[in-house]
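Researcher: Structure for this, please.
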Amino acid sequence: MWPFKRRRAHAKLRAAYTRHLADEVIDELIKGPRPLDAAPQPARLCYILLQVRDDPVEQVPALMSQAIDIIVRRNGSVWGVTSSLALASFGPPFSDDPERDLDQRTKSIARLLTELGPNVRIVYGNADGLLGNCGSANRPHFGPVLPDLARHLAALMALDFGQSAEV
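Model: Predicted structure, token format:
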């Protein structure tokens, strides 16, 4: 009976994360889930911080869905969406190939600007940040901590929609 429980659990995991993580990432989680380290660890972040147009607000879900799909297709991880903003990264903990991560991010940015055009603005770069549980023991939240977020947000808000800039 236990093999069926395991298959159901894997199917539930795949269904829950298929729109947020690349298939390869989900396969890795199913093959051998790693224990969640309680403390964030230093990590080199290859990131994208983007905003989709939020006027009119009704278009945000469709635009964000399209942006997330573009990023996930390139093996990016979308760590958080708040209102019309999203933070994504390429690389750790799912990849140890910085050249490939940079290439995937570059292709994602080009695709975002091509498909979403005047409905998205993007800042991107590489930063020494943290990756791990940046929540609490009672409410864990696994994700990156991007240093000097205020500077990144200011750079993002200084752009017109349809533009991108390296920070």
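Researcher: Any notable elements?
Model: The beta strands are 41-52, 77-82, 85-90, 120-133, 142-145, 164-166. The CA atoms of residues 102 and 159 lie 22 Å apart.
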